[in-house]
Amino acid sequence: MADLRKITKLIEKLEILTKQLDRDKNIQLHNHINQFHYLEKTAELKILIDQHLTTEKKLNQLSDRLECEYKKVCYQWSKDIRWMNSIQRRELKSNS
Fold first, then answer.
1. DSSP 33
2. CB 49 within 8 A of CB 8
3. Half-sphere exposure of residue 16, counting CA atoms within 13 Å on the CB side?
């Protein structure tokens, strides 16, 4: 699973780098380091983090709903099995 803290720290470092490159107009520096690559990757990582958090929230909601439905069905099933078993026992006693 993705470590969002590590990704967030990297984004911070990328933002520092792009700000430094924006301030420093040294042509040799800009020929070696592609500022726009890091701007694009920063934006992409931010979008992916947002998507991850949204999906994680939806998954948690789905898990909660699944657990709730499971408990309801399991409770009803247990109740019905006990009732059915008691009926079957009575029928066995009456047939004996």
1. S
2. yes
3. 6
Could you give the CA distance from residue 92 to residue 89 in angstroms, rounded to a whole number? 5
Q: 37-62: buried (b, 16+ CB within 10 Å) or exposed (e) per residue?
A: ebbeebeeeeeeeeeeeeeeeeeeee
Is the per-residue pLDDT at 1 higher than 90?
A: no
The answer to whether the beta carbons of residues 42 and 22 sit under 8 Å apart is no
**Alpha-carbon distance values, 30 to 19, 21, 56, 76 (Å):** 12, 7, 38, 68
Instruction: Check the CA dihedral 27-33-37-41 and report its sign.
Output: negative
Torsion over CA: 43, 45, 49, 54 (sign): positive
Global pTM value: 0.74
